[in-house]
Design a protein that fits this description.
Elements: H1 3-33, H2 43-52, H3 58-74, H4 84-98, H5 109-117, H6 124-138, H7 143-148, E1 154-156, E2 160-167, E3 170-177, H8 186-197, E4 206-208, E5 214-218, H9 221-234, H10 239-242, H11 249-260, H12 265-272, H13 281-284
Antiparallel strand pairs: 1-2, 2-3, 4-5
C-alpha cells in the first residue's frame, strides 16, 4: 500500500468531520434563532429543523441529521432517529427535494427600490429594514445567512461592502457593490443603521421594540418574512404578491435579475454560494415572467 493509498481515506475522513462540525453549527444557530435547546433536542425540534432545509439536497439533509445524532451519542444524550416525527420530516424533505421546486416568489429591482423608499422615515426600524433589504438582495443571502450576520462580519472598503459569510466552517467574502444612488447604497445603509444600533459586535439585524428601542436579539427568518411583507404592502405592491414573499425572496430576486442581465453562470454561482449550477434552474423558469 502506497502513501497515496493511505492519504486519500485520511483526507476523506477529515473532510467528513469538517462537514459534520459545520452541520452541527448550522443546527445550533437555527436553534438559537428559535429559542430552543439543541441538546438534548426534542423530536419536534429536530423535525422542524429538517423541514426548514428547503434549499438543500437530500444528502445534505441526511448528513445534518446524522451530525445531530452523533453529537447526542457523544454526549451520552438520548437519541431516537426512528421517532415517527423525525422520520416523517426526513421523508417529506427528501421527497420534496426530488420534485421540481415551485417558482419562488421574488423581490424585483423595482420592488426593492419601492420598498427601500418606504424605509426613509429616519426611524430605527426604517434604518434597519433598509439595510436588511439592501444586504439581502445585493448579497443574494440565504435566510440563515441574513439573520446570522454579525456586526463584525461587515467591512466597508472603497469599492464595496464586504460580508464575511460562514460556510462549512469557513468564512467566504461576499462583495456588495456601491451604486451611485445613496438611497440604494449598502454602505450608506449600514452606516446609518449603526448610528442608531450602537453595536460593535453581535447580531447585525436585531429586534426593535414598539418604543423603537433596539434590542440584543437577532431577527428570525420569520421576522424577516414579516418585514418584507410589511414593506411590500407599504410600497403598494399587489397583495397577492406581497403576501407570497418570504425571507428567501431577496436572494431569489437577485438571482433572477442577474440571469436576466446575462451574468456569467460561474460568477453567479460563486456570488450566491451555489456549488452546482443546476440549482439555478428553478430561477431560470422565471425569466419569461415580469
Amino acid at each position: 500500500m502506497t502513501g497515496a493509498d493511505v492519504a486519500a481515506p485520511v483526507r476523506e475522513a477529515v473532510a467528513t468531520l469538517r462537514a459534520y462540525r459545520a452541520d452541527w453549527v448550522h443546527f445550533t444557530n437555527w436553534c438559537a434563532g428559535h429559542a430552543v435547546s439543541p441538546i438534548p433536542a426534542a423530536a419536534d425540534v429536530v423535525a422542524a429543523y429538517l423541514r426548514s432545509l428547503t434549499e438543500f439536497a437530500p444528502a445534505t439533509i441526511r448528513r445534518r441529521l446524522a451530525a445531530i445524532g452523533k453529537m447526542h451519542r457523544f454526549n451520552e444524550m438520548p437519541w431516537d432517529v426512528t421517532d415517527g416525527r423525525i422520520r416523517a420530516a426526513l421523508t417529506d424533505m427528501t421527497e420534496r427535494a426530488r420534485r421540481p421546486a415551485p417558482p419562488p416568489a421574488v423581490v424585483t429591482p423595482d420592488m426593492l427600490r419601492a420598498m427601500v423608499e418606504r424605509c426613509a422615515d429616519g426611524s430605527p426600524r426604517g434604518l434597519r429594514d433598509r439595510c436588511l433589504l439592501l444586504f439581502g438582495f445585493a448579497g443574494a443571502l440565504r435566510r440563515s445567512e441574513l439573520v446570522g450576520l454579525q456586526v463584525e462580519d461587515v467591512r466597508i472598503d472603497r469599492m464595496a461592502v464586504v460580508l464575511s459569510i460562514r460556510e462549512d466552517g469557513e468564512a467566504q467574502p461576499v462583495h456588495l457593490p456601491l451604486p451611485e444612488a445613496k438611497e440604494m447604497c449598502p454602505a450608506a445603509a449600514f452606516t446609518a443603521w449603526q448610528q442608531v444600533a450602537h453595536r460593535q459586535t453581535g447580531p447585525l439585524f436585531r429586534a426593535i421594540s414598539k418604543g423603537e428601542r433596539v434590542g440584543g436579539r437577532a431577527l428570525t427568518p420569520y421576522a424577516v418574512t414579516r418585514i418584507l411583507q410589511r414593506r411590500a404592502a407599504m410600497a403598494e405592491i399587489p397583495p397577492e404578491i406581497a403576501t407570497a414573499l418570504s425571507a428567501h425572496a431577496l436572494r431569489a430576486g437577485y438571482i433572477v435579475a442577474a440571469l436576466r442581465q446575462g451574468m456569467d453562470t460561474e460568477a453567479l454561482c460563486q456570488h450566491t454560494r451555489y456549488h452546482d449550477p443546476r440549482a439555478l434552474r428553478q430561477y431560470e423558469r422565471l425569466l419569461t415572467h415580469d
